[in-house]
What does this fold into?
Amino acid sequence: MIQENPFMGFKICRKEKEVEFLTQEEVDRIRKAKMPTEGLEKIRDLFLFQCYTSLSYCDMMALKPSDYKTNEYGHIYVTGERLKTKVKFVTILFEDAISIAKKYDFCLPTINNQRYNTNLKIIANICLITKPLHTHIGRHTAACYLLNKGISMEVVARIMGHSTTKITRHYAKLLDTSVFDAVDKIMNNV
It folds into this structure.
């Protein structure tokens, strides 16, 4: 029988996986690309909807027309509990997301996750995108976009349905242009 823990003193360092997200140019390339089939067009629309809303795949698939609401400012939004975590989320739809929702009469096409991810790889090839397209990269793209537009970590956490901002910080990838914009504001105000 072992008297001492042979692993005492060993520390396993797990490198945190880098969050991948699409640049605005890559999102535009997907948006503008002509899809060869109606099925790929629907999957492209669903993926862009994720990029514009930060909704997870399962939360997006669960959307019903009655889930779309309009607030007192006239903005269309969706709210609910994340299916995965039961944490409340609220996300306002920007014009691009509204266009997609309207295209399908606020009843987005449903597709199983495996087929969705498989077809996203085809779309990546069509659009010459070398990053691996999958359901999560759309969500990551939305989070990075919102954070780089100056929306606070707390608001992005609520939009994404995160229970704490610690989870949201994983998505906080500051773009060079955000650094340039922030410094430019300071330099022009001096």
Q: What stands out?
A: The first helix runs from residue 24 to 32.
